[in-house]
Amino acid sequence: MRMYDIIVKKREGNILNEEEIRFFINGYTNGEIPDYQASALAMAIYFQGMNGKETAALTQAMVDSGEKIDLSDIEGHIVDKHSTGGVGDKVTFIIGPLVASLGIPVAKMSGRGLGHTGGTIDKLEAIEGFTTEITKEEFVRNVNTHKLAVAGQTGNLAPADKKLYALRDVTGTVNALSLIASSIMSKKLASGADSIVLDVKTGSGAFMKTLEDSEALAREMVTIGNELGKNTVAVISDMNQPLGFEVGNANEIKEAAEILKGSDVKDLRELSLEIASQMSVLAGAFDKPEAAREALEENISNGKAHAKLKEFIEAQHGAGEMIDDLSKLPQAEYHVEVPAETGGYVNEIDAESIGVAAMYLGAGRQTKDDKIDHSVGITLKKKIGDKVEEGEPLVVLHSNMKEPEDSVEKVKKAYTITSDKKEAPTLLHNIIK
Ligand code: URA
């Protein structure tokens, strides 16, 4: 078999078979196939696409290129959740304890963030002492005992994807549906859960800007999951503005803990309950999401979900008292209001710019080696559809700089205020099974 023939076959719009896809992935991972041939094939796939079978074969080959986490020592049906990423997305800290409070095991492998705000691990590390550097044995023990554990991703999950993603990034081939879907799913499938709920974001602050593209990506990922033996459901949710009111690290943990205490931040609570319901159904605990939702809401009201958050934090060596008293979480020195320059209604909030403004404060990394400041972040005071008077604060910047000018400017540009009222965007667009 020759890589040249595989490239030409795809360039001409033909369907690659499993053997050819494996030949490419194995050869590329072990260095026998050079970058220039891999990028030619990626570009051919970009223009010609791949069908469901090809995409599933590509995903499986990437899963097989590295370590697969064996979670067979965990009792029960394990459900994982993945978000395609968005600003203010703290859903994991809510659905983890919520689903676990029903006795359903949640075993999460997570990463750090390179971008606007921290990743799941960075945010959790806002809690003093909390660590995700636990052994496989501790991870399994914690899931069996507490029904919830979060571990840092090991270096060797789907190494083929790591190499190919880096290549796509510099060759204009990231935005190919089958390549994105197989990339995301290869990492999820290697992480060992039995079922997966995907939160596919759509809108200005999302990877996929249009509903059509987001649905196409979701369908592709659900097909891959189901083809490869994992029950997979995708929720398409809105990312035309940050989720909830808090963007940062400690302040996102705070907002998540408050939801588990019963606070009603509408979009955040709604999305979390939807995802948690879908997870509970996939785990086989309920027939219908409505029944799961009732039980989940009950566990918020009776305090079990909040107690589970504290139990999980303490099991991973974190200071549980910070969850009881959220004012003990790291606090920034200054709280700088950004006032509206005109009155009217909030028409748009560019989520990405809010994320960048948070990063300028130190909530995220600009380069891999940057250190995160857990105490800084942004509290949104106004969201789409809200009325605002001239001079009223749009956001509060929690900063350790007295005059965070760059963030102030970024926030001002992120908000569009108009004289006519716009309705808040629909939160849940679709569920794809
Ligand atoms: N995220 C991934 O992990 N892979 C992609 O290709 C795109 C986004």
Order of helices and strands: HHHHEHEHHEHHEHEEHHHHHEEHEEEHEE
Number of strands: 13
Share in helix: 40-55%
The CATH superfamily of the largest domain bears the name Nucleoside phosphorylase/phosphoribosyltransferase catalytic domain
Tell me the strand order in the biggest sheet: 1-4-5-13
Category by helix and strand content: alpha/beta
Share in β-strands: 15-25%
Overall pLDDT confidence? 95
Apparent shape: globular
Low-confidence stretches: none
Describe the protein's architecture and organization.
The structure is a single chain. The protein is of the alpha/beta class. It folds into three domains: 3-49, Transferase, Pyrimidine Nucleoside Phosphorylase, Chain C (Transferase, Pyrimidine Nucleoside Phosphorylase, Chain A, domain 3, Up-down Bundle), CATH 1.20.970.10; 79-324, 3-Layer(aba) Sandwich (Pyrimidine Nucleoside Phosphorylase, Chain A, domain 2); 331-418, Alpha-Beta Complex (Aldehyde Oxidoreductase, domain 3), CATH 3.90.1170.30. The protein contains 17 helices and 13 strands. It has a four-stranded mixed beta sheet with strand order 1-4-5-13, sandwiched between helices. The chain has a four-stranded antiparallel beta sheet with strand order 6-9-11-7. The chain has a three-stranded antiparallel beta sheet with strand order 10-8-12. The longest helix is centred in the middle third of the chain and has 17 residues, at 211-227. The protein is globular. 53% of the residues are buried. It binds uracil. Residues 165, 174, 179-180, 183-184 line the site of uracil (URA).
